[in-house]
Amino acid sequence: MLISFLTVALAGVVTVRGDVNARDSCSHDNCLRAFIGAGSSAVSFCQTHTSGAAIPTFAANCDGSAARVASACSCIYTAPPTSTPPVATITSTTASPTTTTTTPCHCTAWSQISPAVAACLDITLDNIQAPTSSAIILTKLQTGASVTFKGRTSFDFTNSSQFKPIQIAGNHVSIVGAPGSVIDGGGQQYWDGLGTNGGRPKPGQFMKVQITNHSIMRDLYIENIPSHGINVAGVLDSTIQNIVVNNSLGDAPNSLSGGLAAAHNTDAFDVGNCVNLLIQDCKVWNQDDCVVVSDSTNVTVRNVFCSGSHGLSIAGGGTGPGHNISNILFTDSVVTNSTNGLRIKTDFNATGSVVNVTYSNIALSNIKQYGIDIEQDYLNGGPSGIATNGVRVENIRFENVAGWVVPEARDYYVLCGDGSCNGITYKNVHITGGEELSSCNYPWSGCPGP
Ligand SMILES: *[C@@H]1O[C@H](CO)[C@@H](O)[C@H](O)[C@H]1NC(C)=O
Ligand SMILES: *[C@@H]1O[C@H](CO)[C@@H](O)[C@H](O)[C@H]1NC(C)=O
Ligand SMILES: *[C@@H]1O[C@H](CO)[C@@H](O)[C@H](O)[C@H]1NC(C)=O
Ligand SMILES: *[C@@H]1O[C@H](CO)[C@@H](O)[C@H](O)[C@H]1NC(C)=O
Ligand SMILES: *[C@@H]1O[C@H](CO)[C@@H](O)[C@H](O)[C@H]1NC(C)=O
Ligand SMILES: *[C@@H]1O[C@H](CO)[C@@H](O)[C@H](O)[C@H]1NC(C)=O
Ligand SMILES: *[C@@H]1O[C@H](CO)[C@@H](O)[C@H](O)[C@H]1NC(C)=O
Ligand SMILES: *[C@@H]1O[C@H](CO)[C@@H](O)[C@H](O)[C@H]1NC(C)=O
């Protein structure tokens, strides 16, 4: 049933246009969150919005402020330019006016990327080696553009945690990896076992993806991300499929990591502020969350393989109000050799909601800590042991989930706040192997089990 919502939503007509770039400077406050949460109705509103117009009911969180409404609109919709669109030729500034040089759309050097993005609808990035501090910026793609990564894409060392090597935004765009292509994050130049917690500065967000309106990103092979991988932020009505994130090399310790895995905090997919997103057919070998969803609605994650990870997660709460997550489906997936299998964590003292989450047809194996984990006690990124009830966790279904955890692990762990969990159900769920006792404070009947 939850599968159908996405199919319907993806097939529906949603119009979002514009400079999604603007979102880079848009803080996700309550007002903007309400706009994102309202999806296509907010976009339609913004398309015709004029200052002084009545504030729509979905924007109640904007405190009646016309300025905040205008600002939220500018973050989700930009009118099409009235000038003529760029053409595939530019006039050389030094040559006589009669000669023109054609902008290459097939780029073999980093310096060719920016002009190609401005001029071309069909861009190939062929064996790009990006120099130090030089990100591949694809945030001003034309509507309908396609970008193909070909050969090996690599990055020279950049000593900054602010560096974001690949940035993508666009409307109705396709981002594709050619057969055999590799995007190499060069993690070996950064890994020291500490991830984002210290040590060497590391590019903190390898890839930022803000695609909208029936865009697709597919067939990418990404290896050796320095720390966090793909930030899927503000994606509307789009699909991400057949992506491999292979950070296996980071499992081995190196000379700086004191015996720990060299790579750390290497989340593969960090999903936030997305509406109507499908992630499917992906494979991940990493050292942190495989897929983690926050502040989103209508997200399906299907046919994903996760190894070495922290599993398939929902992260509820966060600072300030307005953190709502709803209608999330994880299905037909495998989690192996990972810290957790399936996890819903919400922040201590936070507010918000996690509603309508289904995990179905999932195989777990070799899980080190918890098979199924629901915890309302996260503080500074880790469990505090004290659950709070500001985040409503409701209608959570586990169906056809089976597998095993190691003896040191627990099959199930549920720590809900007082009265904040409702309707957590298990159907045909069998997790075994844990010799630590499972512990579930909700429902009153305790953990599922034999
Ligand atoms: C989520 O999907 C449902 C079912 O297709 C649809 O009715 C709803 O509008 C979607 N929500 C948003 C915010 O687009
Ligand atoms: C979104 O894409 C559809 C085609 O899939 C197109 O008809 C529509 O105009 C696009 N919307 C915008 C705002 O570009
Ligand atoms: C990176 O920058 C830090 C300061 O942020 C500096 O201490 C360190 O020496 C630099 N490392 C390299 C390899 O340039
Ligand atoms: C992942 O990377 C490791 C180390 O480079 C390699 O041995 C392995 O074959 C890769 N796996 C896949 C599926 O490409
Ligand atoms: C399991 O993950 C660890 C790192 O956490 C890695 O060293 C090991 O090779 C992985 N084993 C398998 C079977 O994938
Ligand atoms: C919990 O939230 C309340 C209200 O926002 C705040 O006053 C309090 O300091 C918070 N407590 C902790 C331990 O963060
Ligand atoms: C978000 O969740 C909170 C807590 O359940 C709820 O009060 C609020 O109405 C929700 N906001 C939206 C925009 O759904
Ligand atoms: C949760 O699912 C129920 C039943 O499909 C639906 O009525 C409700 O609107 C959903 N809640 C949210 C917040 O989307």
From TrEMBL:
Q: Where in the cell is it found?
A: Secreted
Which biological processes are named by the entry's GO terms? cell wall organization; pectin catabolic process
Where does the secretion signal sit in this chain? 1-18
Alphabetically ordered keywords of this record = Cell wall biogenesis/degradation, Disulfide bond, Glycoprotein, Glycosidase, Hydrolase, Repeat, Secreted, Signal
Q: Which reaction does it catalyse?
A: (1,4-alpha-D-galacturonosyl)n+m + H2O = (1,4-alpha-D-galacturonosyl)n + (1,4-alpha-D-galacturonosyl)m
- Reported EC number(s) for this entry are 3.2.1.15
Entry-linked InterPro entries = Glyco_hydro_28, Glycosyl_hydrlase_28, PbH1, Pectin_lyas_fold, Pectin_lyase_fold/virulence
| Entry GO terms, CC | extracellular region
Show the GO MF annotations: polygalacturonase activity
Pfam families documented for this protein: Glyco_hydro_28 (PF00295)
Q: What does the similarity note say? A: Belongs to the glycosyl hydrolase 28 family.
Role played:
Involved in maceration and soft-rotting of plant tissue. Hydrolyzes the 1,4-alpha glycosidic bonds of de-esterified pectate in the smooth region of the plant cell wall.
This chain belongs to the protein called endo-polygalacturonase
Q: Which organism is it from?
A: Oidiodendron maius (strain Zn)
